[in-house]
Design a protein that fits this description.
Length: 181
């Protein structure tokens, strides 16, 4: 049974359940997989429990957080301890660039990366879901595979979780929501 209300602004989907948990999901879509797609990939059990904001990859984390605080938290600050910050594909860059070890969860779903992202000190609140087969190493000015491998080592070294699944790129968000939230 649907127990949440949804509003959509220009590039943002906001969902508020009748009886929410304290945690808020901030989810960034990717290129060709937008805010509505991210929201639709979430099962009803998640929508019925969490306050949710989904945004495109090109909206900054600070702006998404401000919208979440305004529309889902009565203008009050949302502690990182109550933030589940997720990014798919290009949207994963927002998680990497704004990573906080105090996030409830930092989830990167078949994420794009830049070499600087391997320097982030990811902790045990991190989950990376990835499929090498979804990425063409020749599209990047650096060795994408080596960078992902280095990032994986750092995530695992600090207690984070890494999962490699042979799943199509656009199926990854649904898999993540069904298996890790």
């Amino acid at each position: 049974m649907k127990m949440y209300k949804t509003k959509q602004f220009k590039d943002i989907v906001i969902s508020n359940p009748e009886h929410p948990l304290n945690d808020i999901i901030i989810a960034f879509g990717g290129v060709g997989f937008h805010e509505v797609d991210m929201f639709n990939a979430m099962p009803r059990r998640i929508k019925n429990r969490y306050k949710i904001i989904t945004v495109p990859y090109y909206i900054s984390y600070p702006m998404a957080l401000e919208v979440a605080e305004t529309h889902l938290n009565n203008g009050n600050t949302i502690s990182p301890f109550n933030q589940i910050v997720l990014g798919f594909s290009a949207g994963g860059r927002n998680v990497q660039s704004n990573y906080d070890p105090n996030f409830k969860l930092a989830g990167m779903i078949d994420t794009s990366i830049r070499p600087i992202d391997v320097n982030v000190n990811y902790q045990d609140n991190t989950i990376l879901l990835f499929n090498y087969n979804n990425w063409d190493n020749t599209m990047f000015y650096f060795d994408f595979t080596d960078s992902i491998d280095e990032m994986v080592q750092k995530i695992r070294a600090n207690g984070g979780k890494v999962y490699f699944e042979n799943i199509a790129h656009y199926e990854m968000p649904k898999y993540f929501f069904n298996n890790f939230l």
